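Need a sequence for this fold. Nothing fancy.
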């Protein structure tokens, strides 16, 4: 998610300068993820990180490109909730995933290959790709949307 959606996220912030807009988006996304069978921690991660992202963007009245970019990076970390639970409670994670219809072979592969290095690399990859996407998104806001009069 972190790689492609920053322009849309930043456009939302640029158009809607209101508290809770990002939180509402995160809650809706979390509900959709949960209803479609994702692990409960994946959905909860998006909900929590959306609220955190909302406060970060709100600290700059939703007008600071740096805070809005940081907000996007934090929001993107929401999808890591399920993996955090995997590392904290692998057996509980496996039972939940099996209950959601995940195949045993996927569970076995995760348990055989996951280690702390993978978790760190995953967080680093999300942060780096989100930061690049936020940089591109800020450039697009300035070059495309401001020129077209879509944003101020």
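Here you go.
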């Amino acid at each position: 998610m972190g790689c492609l959606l920053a322009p849309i996220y930043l456009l939302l912030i640029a158009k809607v300068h209101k508290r809770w807009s990002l939180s509402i988006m995160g809650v809706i996304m979390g509900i959709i993820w949960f209803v479609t069978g994702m692990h409960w921690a994946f959905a909860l991660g998006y909900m929590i990180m959306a609220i955190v992202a909302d406060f970060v963007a709100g600290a700059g009245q939703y007008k600071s490109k740096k805070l809005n970019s940081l907000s996007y990076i934090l929001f993107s970390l929401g999808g890591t909730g399920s993996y955090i639970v995997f590392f904290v409670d692998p057996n509980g994670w496996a039972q939940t995933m099996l209950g959601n219809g995940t195949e045993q072979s996927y569970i076995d592969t995760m348990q055989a290959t996951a280690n702390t290095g993978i978790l760190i690399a995953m967080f680093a990859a999300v942060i780096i790709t989100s930061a690049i996407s936020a940089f591109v998104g800020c450039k697009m806001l300035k070059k495309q949307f401001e020129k077209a009069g879509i944003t101020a």
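For context: The helical segments are 6-15, 21-35, 40-59, 65-76, 81-88, 90-99, 104-113, 116-146.
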